[in-house]
């Protein structure tokens, strides 16, 4: 179906014509009419199927038609990551190029102070469309920078991703700020139970639109290495030795692995960069710009790059870890072989990830080629069918117990069970307390315990008495201690004290004052040393005598 056949605004159609968008994708064909009719929609489709245009085009056409308050926020789009929020904002600017009076702002964390001030101004003035990450929008709501009482459209993009990142409570808190008449649209790549529960709480009589998960392109050459965890870095280094590879993405399951792999590649003088959530927004933008411009050959990243980011000319994708969800595997390797190009996808399968890799093979309905390990790395584990790994049985404590064959804890448990059984057999005999031997034994044991307690108390009291006699100066034993001290110090003469302590202190102060006065007087009365006669003084005396003779001065 063509966009012209849909009931879209003329300004929106002009923008699509300039962008050379003619025909609709299946998700766009099914969702755009329902959103235009005002229904809540729950769409399940993969990334790359045109979901962004599926909800932006009808919302923009309705906003351009009018009937919505000015100077207020009319649409809120939630995004799990900053990169996806930026991409939605760029699409918004393209689709709304010919729209007058429709503004938008992307709100996400990791920016500087100037960007934050710009967000606050736009939110208070009332941007028509706000594209935000959950955490950033919650912070603006708590500070009173946002008024969501007049919102007409609430859109959740990549809802399953947001729930996996732990934003369920934030989404519910944001939904409470919205009016009840708000139209809610939710898109997700998967449909787990969490999404169903969230849809029940947010959506009202939604229309469900589900598309089958598309499989990877046939031009992607898929292969795998069955290896141990310690052999993965060696395999990656061997892959890069084989030839000059550029524009390669290495996907890792955690941030720590991303840092380890990137540092290992840089030590081998490979031009690589890392991409994960610990980086600031400026660092992310810088790395993505360098990778797109060809300044970086390899990008080591988490699943941030697997969804919602368009990067062309990717020659190879390496899965350092096997994703636990088969659709995530499709998203990862879907970064390559775009625009009818060839691509390579290599997966490193450890012994623990064999179950998840077998699930992907079932989903793809084909067996992926297994490559041989390099000779310098040795042999890998055996590839066999395995059940789903249990996290509890795979703990470090259980592994140590299996390795060391520790069975002492089992013997202790058996001993305790036998003791409990003996006690139950003895107490199960319904007899009188006096005739019951168990009661008599307990009574005798109780007497024993009381005697032991008394003995302990008496012994502790004796110890305390001894301590008091040793350390209390009021006791008689202190006399002996004092005599011993006197005998020890008899060899040394004792200083003689005159008067009381206060008198001695005053005398000492007076003596200090007297010493100060004496020093001062000595300085004042100090005589200057006589100057020795020199030739200069003798000449002056001769001159004086000559002058006196001239003028007749006599004695």
From TrEMBL:
InterPro entries: DEAD/DEAH_box_helicase_dom (IPR011545), DEAD/DEAH_RhlB (IPR044742), DEAD_box_RNA_helicase (IPR050079), Helicase_ATP-bd (IPR014001), Helicase_C-like (IPR001650), P-loop_NTPase (IPR027417), RNA-helicase_DEAD-box_CS (IPR000629), RNA_helicase_DEAD_Q_motif (IPR014014). CDD domains: DEADc (cd00268), SF2_C_DEAD (cd18787). Keywords: ATP-binding, Helicase, Hydrolase, Nucleotide-binding. GO terms for molecular function: ATP binding; hydrolase activity; nucleic acid binding; RNA helicase activity. Residues 472-491 have a biased composition (Low complexity). Gene3D superfamilies: P-loop containing nucleotide triphosphate hydrolases. Residues 426-435 have a biased composition (Polar residues). This is ATP-dependent helicase. It comes from Segatella bryantii.
């Amino acid at each position: 179906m063509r966009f012209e056949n849909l009931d879209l605004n003329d300004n929106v159609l002009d923008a699509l014509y300039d962008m050379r968008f003619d025909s609709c994708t299946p998700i766009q064909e099914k969702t755009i009419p329902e959103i235009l009719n005002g229904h809540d929609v729950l769409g399940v489709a993969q990334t790359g199927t045109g979901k962004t245009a599926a909800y932006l085009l009808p919302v923009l056409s309705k906003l351009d038609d009018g009937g919505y308050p000015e100077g207020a926020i009319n649409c809120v789009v939630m995004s799990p990551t900053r990169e996806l929020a930026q991409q939605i904002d760029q699409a918004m600017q393209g689709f709304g190029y010919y729209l007058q009076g429709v503004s938008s702002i992307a709100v996400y964390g990791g920016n500087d102070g100037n960007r934050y001030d710009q967000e606050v101004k736009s939110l208070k003035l009332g941007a028509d469309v706000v594209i935000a990450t959950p955490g950033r929008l919650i912070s603006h709501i708590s500070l009173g920078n946002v008024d969501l009482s007049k919102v007409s459209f609430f859109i959740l993009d990549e809802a399953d991703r947001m729930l996996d990142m732990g934003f369920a409570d934030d989404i519910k808190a944001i939904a409470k700020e919205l009016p009840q008449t708000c139209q809610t649209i939710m898109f997700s790549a998967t449909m787990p139970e969490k999404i169903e529960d969230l849809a029940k709480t947010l959506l009202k009589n939604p229309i469900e639109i589900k598309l089958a998960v598309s499989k990877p392109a046939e031009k992607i050459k898929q292969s795998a290495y069955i290896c141990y965890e310690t052999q993965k870095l060696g395999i990656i280094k061997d892959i890069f030795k084989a030839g000059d590879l550029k524009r390669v993405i290495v996907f890792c399951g955690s941030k720590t692995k991303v840092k380890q792999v990137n540092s290992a590649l840089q030590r081998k003088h490979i031009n690589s960069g890392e991409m994960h959530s610990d980086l600031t927004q400026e660092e992310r933008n810088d790395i993505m710009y360098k990778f797109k411009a060809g300044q970086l050959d390899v990008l080591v990243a988490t699943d941030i790059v697997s969804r919602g980011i368009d990067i062309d000319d990717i020659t190879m994708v390496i899965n350092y870890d096997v994703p636990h969800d088969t659709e995530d595997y499709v998203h990862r390797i879907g970064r390559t072989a775009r625009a009818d190009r060839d691509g390579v996808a290599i997966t490193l399968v450890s012994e623990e990830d064999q179950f998840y890799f077998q699930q992907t093979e079932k989903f793809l309905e084909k067996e992926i080629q297994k490559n041989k390990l390099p000779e310098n790395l040795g042999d890998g584990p055996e590839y066999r069918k395995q059940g789903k790994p249990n996290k509890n049985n795979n703990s470090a404590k259980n592994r140590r117990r299996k390795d060391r064959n520790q069975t002492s804890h089992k013997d202790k448990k058996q001993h305790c069970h036998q003791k409990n059984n003996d006690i139950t057999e003895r107490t199960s005999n319904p007899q009188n307390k006096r005739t019951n031997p168990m009661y008599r034994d307990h009574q005798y044991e109780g007497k024993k315990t009381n005697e032991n307690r008394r003995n302990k108390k008496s012994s502790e009291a004796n110890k305390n008495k001894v301590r008091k006699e040793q350390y209390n100066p009021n006791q008689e034993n202190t006399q002996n201690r004092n005599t011993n001290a006197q005998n020890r110090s008899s060899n040394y003469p004792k200083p003689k004290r005159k008067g009381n302590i206060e008198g001695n202190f005053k005398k000492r102060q007076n003596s200090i004052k007297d010493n100060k006065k004496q020093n001062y007087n000595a300085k004042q009365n100090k005589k200057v040393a006589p100057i020795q006669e020199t030739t200069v003084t003798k000449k002056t005396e001769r001159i004086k005598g000559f002058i006196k003779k001239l003028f007749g001065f006599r004695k």
